[in-house]
Fold:
Amino acid sequence: MLGDRLFASLVASSAMALVIATPALANKTADRAREAIAAADAKIHTAESIGAGTDSPRDTAQAQAALASAREDLASGRKEAAIHEAIRASALADTAIGTSQQHKDNAVASAREAQSATADAARDQVAAAHDQAAAAQQQTVEANARAQTAQQSAAAAATDAAAARNAAVLAAAQTPPAPQIETSVTTQQTVGVHHSTRTRMKRRTTTTGAAPASSTQITTTTKVNP
Structure:
C-alpha cells in the first residue's frame, strides 16, 4: 500500500512538473523565434541599404519571402518552423550582402586599375613631352651653331672679297714701269782663200790671182726686260 501511494505521488509530481515546464519551454522557443526573426530582419535591411536589391535581387527577394514566412509561422504558433524560416532568411540576406560587397570590391578594383592606367599614361605623355622638348632644344642649339658658323664663313668671305677688291684697286692705280729694251748686234766676217795661177808663154809671164773674197754677216738680237 505504501508503495502504491509513493508511486502515485511520484507520478503526480512528474505530471505537475511537466505541466509547469511546458509553458516555460514554449515561451523560450517563441523567444528564440522572435530573436531569429529580428536578426533576419536586420540583415535584410542591411542588404537593402548597401544596394543588394540591385546587385543580388534574387537572394534579397528570397530572404524577404523567408522572413515573411517566419513571421506567419510564429503568429500561427509554429515556433520551430518560424525559427527555421528566420534562419534561412538570414542566410539569404548574408548571400545578398556578400554578392553586393563583391560587386563593390570589383568596381573599386576596376576603378583603381583605370586610375592607375590613366596615371601611367599621363606619366608616359609627360615623359614623351620632356623628350620632345629636349630634342627640340638640342635641334635649336645645333641650328644656332650652324647659323653662327655660316655667319662666320660669310664674314670671312666678305673680308676676302674686300681684300681682293682693294688689291685690284691698288694694282690698277700703280703705273707699270717702261720696259727696258736691250739690243745686241753680232757681226761675223768670213774671209775667202787666195788662189794663184802662173802661165808661161814664150818670154812672157802672166800671173793671174783671184782677189781675196770676204763676206760679212750681221745678226741683231733684241731683248725686252719688263
About this structure: Residues 1-22, 193-197, 204-213 have pLDDT under 50 and may be disordered. The CA atoms of residues 194 and 212 lie 5 Å apart. Helices lie at 2-49, 52-55, 57-75, 79-173.
